[in-house]
Amino acid sequence: xxxxxxxxxxxxxxxxxxxxxxxxxxxxxxxxxxxxxxxxxxxxxxxxxxxxxxxxxxxxxxxxxxxxxxxxxxxxxxxxxxxxxxxxxxxxxxxxxxxxxxxxxxxxxxxxxxxxxxxxxxxxxxxxxxxxxxxxxxxxxxxxxxxxxxxxxxxxxxxx
Length: 160
Prior knowledge:
Blueprint (H helix, E strand, L loop, with lengths): L3 E4 L5 H14 L13 H4 L4 E7 L5 E9 L4 E9 L8 H15 L4 E7 L5 H9 L3 E3 L11 E7 L7
Parallel strand pairs: 4-5
Antiparallel strand pairs: 1-2, 2-3, 3-4, 5-7, 6-7
């Protein structure tokens, strides 16, 4: 399957629908108070870049975001692939695109929070295959049995 990945606004109906699908997917997996969601309006903020994967017909099949923090820190947010394309490496392609832009922008340390439990196995495998390792609590997330934290150190490109 050929896909394209581009930086887009999350304020599009099909991206809103994808984020709604993500929220519905997460709802039964963790207590609501431990689901640290960004709304599409928050995703449209100046500190966040949204990546959308589309199939050959232009259908939005996946998304992810890079939220930039101070001092070279970037956070992976809102990673999701449509259930019909799971296992086809769409998440890997999104994560590669996000990481490449992070490096271009001088991000030296990526972090993320994800859930714990059987519903998160695929996410854990995705992050581990991409070179992320488990770490302690990041940013202002609470230390909880419902969260797993990952990090990845990035090398700056020679031009930086």
